[in-house]
Structures are given as structure tokens and as C-alpha cells.
Amino acid sequence: MKKGQLQALEPILAVIIIAIILVIGFIYVVKISTNESVQDEMLSAENEDTATLTMLSAMPELACASDIKEKNCIDLEKAKLFSQLLKTPSGRSYYASLFGKRDIIITYFDIEKKQENTIVLFDYEAQGASIGSRTYFTAHDAATKNMHFAILSIKRFS
Amino acid sequence: MKRGQLESPIQWIIALLGGIALLGMLLFGVKSCASSGQDQLDAGAARSTATVINTQAWQPNTNSTIQVAPLHVMCPAGTLSLAVVDNSGTPTTTYPIDRSPVFLPAKLQSTMRATTTDLKLARSPVQVRYGSVLYLSDPTVNYYVIQNEQGQLQDQQLKNMLPLVTTQRALAIKEGEKAVVISFDDPRGPDMSQSKTPASLVWIRVSGSGVERQATIYKYENKNWKQQGIVAVPNDVFLAGAIITQDPTLYQCSLQAVAKRTRYVTQIMQLRLEDLAAKGVCKEPLQRTALLFKELHSAQQPENYLSILFSDTYTKRLSAQQSALLQQGCPVIA
Q: Among candidates B107, B104, B67, which has minimal Cα distance to B91?
């Protein structure tokens, strides 16, 4: 290539170089902002996990009746019926927006029978990585009038 | 002019056009990113406010101040929703909150007063609790109740739900004040002769009694009371809801949300009684009580359902069953 031809291409080369620098800069800014929004999203999801546990602990669909003075108490009969309701199309579509992409599981321990029992309250029906949170409860069995130690756990899917 | 001399300006023109095109593309990219970022921000604000509402809604005895996004509250297609609106008032982002029993005004302030009250049988000596209802009220709004002929506030329960101030019919509203005035069984509007121009003023006229009780909502516009609509307020919980929302459409929307959720709750109560009876626990009394719920669930419309649930007859029957179950040492309704 002759010197004259190269000189004539100079402006175009300058524009190309500036374009490359600008595009790299733009990608960098977008990456940082995406990263920040992912972190915000994670923090917000963690807060929502705590909020979901707090909400579940006070829901009348699960709470023990007024004759039980125990605080943080789940009625096992209600929990079983609520899990059945959440398996029906209408129940599932109604409560899904409250529970989000989460599995909600109640595990209670029957000391007398030395048994660990599980009620899957809400199954998001997802596979893959999940993050868990839990809280502790007293579970009341209205049929036997027994109290059990229980764990309410949630698994959040991304 | 020589060929070389001519080529150089043409190259510069091409470079300039290329540069302009590039700049345009970059600006478009930045604008798209900013717009999608704003959308994400709006959706995030609506979602986190909904989370706050959902969490607070079921907490008994809440009485606090909470921070929320200053969103609008709408009822598109009968679904109570939080909304971000543009300058023309058109919603750009909406987020449903119809799963929670909540009454809130059409515009949220960044600081709102959150109060919950038990949703339970009216005038029942026995507690049958169906959960709670959340009120999000604007702390800058003053709530006045006009004293009746006897000079007493008729609905004492309301005082526990809202920061009510009793007043005479002749109001002394300050310039720029936001207020809601409530009157009982008095067709005359508040006397505004001693008042200055308010920023917003709503009058709620309550008439009738029991499940037949109604609230007529008026707005004070151009020195006149303009009727907005009439709504059914079967008990104080709902009357407080009408006072908070100040809007018949939003009130109906919240009422439907409360009715739908309560219906699920009472369905679980009914099934629990039936299941326990099937297991042989207090068979007859529990079956009798479950039948009462069956009767309740035969009501199709939310208004009918709530009217039955809070009617004096139904309350008495359910309350009698709850007392009997307690006396017999059986599992109670709720």
C-alpha cells in the first residue's frame, strides 16, 4: 500500500479505533451494572425468604386455633389440608404468587414414635440449585392433642 | 483538482457519517439500557412493596410506620395492584397484591402507617378469628368523626383501628389539610363555613346497621360534596377499610380480595373439622359445625359470602358452636 493511500484511510481507521474503545467501554459499564443488579436481586431474594417465613408463621391457613396458647404454632391437620389445597389447580394458582419460586416443607418430630414426618406444603416443581432458609415451630396435632417440635423450611430456586 | 486531493475529503465525509451512525447506535444502546434499568427498578420497587404488604398483612397487632415505594394503587380487571404510572397517568408497571387482605389509598406515600386488626366474628363473645386485615393509611391525613346527637362516638371499635379525632359538625379544616370526615346516621354534610380550602377532603356518611350498613363516599370539590358511590360495610373492619381507601372502586377491589382469601381460610377450617370428625374426634359436634361452613360456602358472590359470615344470625350460630366445642373439650373452630 502506498503512503498516499494509507493517508487517505487515516480518518476511517481513527473512527474504527474510537468505535472499538467506545464499544469496550460500553460493554464494561453494562457488565458492572448487570453485576450490581444481580447482587441486588440476590439480596432482595434473601429478604423475601425471611419475609415468606414470617408470612407463613402468621397465616391463618396454618395457625393453631385460639385454644392453643403456644406461640409460633402450626396446626398439623390444617397443614395437611393446606398442602392438598395447594395441589389443586385453583389453590396452586392462587397461592403461587405469594410463595414464588420456592418449595415449602414442614418437618415435625414425633418423639413418642421416634419418627420424623414431612409435609410438602408447596412444591414449585423445579430441579437444580436452590438456597434454603428455615425457622422453628411447635406443631399441634388436634386429633391426639400432642405437641411436636417442627421445622418450617423453604428452598428457593433461581 | 488532483485525484488525491479529492479522495481525502470524501474519506473524511465517510468517517464523519460513520462516526454519527456509531454515536447514534451508542446513544440508542445507552437509552435502551437506561429504560430497561428503570423498568427493572420500577418492578423491583413494586415487588418489594408487595413483599412488605404480604408480610405485614397477617401479623396480629401491628401498629407501626413502614417505608414503601410511593406507588399508585389500582384495580385493573378486578385485581388489586400496585402500579407505576407515567405522566399521563397510564400504568407502566403493575404488581398484584390481591392475595393479601389489605385496604390502602389510591396513592402511597413513602412513609405509611400500618395497622392490623383481627378479622373475627362480629359481636361474638367467643373468639373465632379468620386472620387479620392490614390498613395502610397516609399519616398526613387527619380522620375526624362527627359526634352524634348523644355526643358520643357510636363505633368505639373503630377508634382502635384508626387515629380518629371527634369533632362537631362545623368543621375547622386548615388551609391545605388532607382529611376524611365520618358521620353516622346524619344525612347533612359537614358544615364547612368555618373551614379553609383543604388539599383533599372526603366525607364518609355511614347509615343503617348490621350487615345492611352502608357507607356513602363524597369528595369535596369546588365547595360542593360530590358523591363517589355507596358501598356495603358489613362490620367495623370493612368500615375502616372504606375510610382508608376513600374510593368505592378500590374498596370493592380490596373487599373482593379479603373475601377470596377468607373463603380459602374458612374452607380449610371446614375440612379440618370434617377430617377430625372422620377420625372419631368429637364426631357429632364437629360435623354440626362443619355443616355451618358448608352453608357459608354455598354463597357464590363475595359480598353475599361476607354478608352471611358477618350476619348476626350466622355469628350467633357459629359462636354457639364454638362455645359448645370449648365446653366439651373438643378442638375449636379457629
A: B107
The total domain count for chain A is 1
Q: Quick check: B58 and A58 CB within 8 A?
A: yes
User: Chain A window 27-46: which residues touch B at a Cβ cutoff of 8 Å?
Assistant: 30, 33, 37, 40, 44
Q: Has residue A8 been placed in a domain?
A: no
Residue B35, judged by CB atoms within 10 A of its CB (0-12, 13-18, 19+), counts as: exposed
C-alpha cell at B184: 353516622
Structural domain span for residue A94: 33-157
Partner residue facing B55 (CB), from A26, A54, A95: A54
d(CA B309, CA B122): 9
- Is the ipTM higher than 0.85? The answer is no
Q: Which residues of A touch B59 (CB under 8 A)?
A: 54, 58
Q: What is the pTM of this model?
A: 0.83
Looking at beta carbons, which residues of chain A come within 8 Å of B57? 55
Q: What is the pLDDT of residues B143-189, one digit of tens each?
A: 999 887 655 555 666 777 888 888 888 888 999 999 999 998 888 88
The answer to whether residue A9 is domain-embedded is no
A98 inside domain: yes
- What residues of A are in contact with residue B268 (Cβ under 8 Å)? 61, 78, 81-82, 85
Per-residue pLDDT at B186: 84
pLDDT tens, residue by residue, B178-187: 999 999 888 8
Residues forming a β-bridge with B165: B144
Question: Is residue A20 situated within a structural domain?
Answer: no
Go through B224-249 and write b for each residue having 16 or more CB atoms within 10 A of its CB, e for each that does not. ebeebeebbbbbbbbbbbbbbbbbbe
Enumerate the residues of chain B whose CB falls inside 8 A of the CB of residue A9. Answer: 11
| Inter-chain CB pairs, A–B, below 8 Å | 111
B58 to A55: CB separation less than 8 angstroms, yes or no? yes
